[in-house]
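Self-study notes.
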Amino acid sequence: MSVKAAVISQIQQIAQEQKKQLPALTEELVLLDSGLDSLAIAILVARLEETLGIDPFTESNEVAYPGTLGEFIRFYEHAAEAHAVDTRQTG
């Protein structure tokens, strides 16, 4: 499963569990307009760490928080790429 597919799938699952309506999940969607509150975003990050084995928020030196869904996905994709490189170097 791609990083993007994992992110989208988890967002949809969390929204369904919390009975929240989601707008179209486009890359331009502002996360604050997604219908997910801070608790839902925290759940999303925790589930993505379980699914993907990474948490870019604790592993990154970046201070800025992704503002759109596309930025959020790319943040995870870059962390996954860096993690794969780190794994190959130590393995």
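Second protein, same conventions, sequence then structure:
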Amino acid sequence: MIVAGAEAVDFRSAVAALAARGHRRLLSEGGPHLLGELTGAGLIDELCVTVSPVMVGPGPNRIIARRGRDDAAAAGDGLPLRLGHVLEDGGFLFCRYTVDPAGNRPSPP
């Protein structure tokens, strides 16, 4: 068992404890709050996203949320990514992005 944090999960401590046990590759699945916590802790190095060929809405939700912050994005929010590859199946797109270590933000086409 790993205990990382007293009242909330300390993700950096949890990842360090797992690495100390030989777990060098970790896969996390969760919602916007978990992704926000991991991103905020600097623990994301790639992101896999599935794009569905179905339009849904309405809703202001984003892929990342952080507890205790309002929904407005602050200047500098976001994590620059590079597209690694895309697979298509039946109109679904399976995208794999890696974090751009140089922090370069892509320009829109």
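Instructor comment on the second fold: The radius of gyration is 16 Å.
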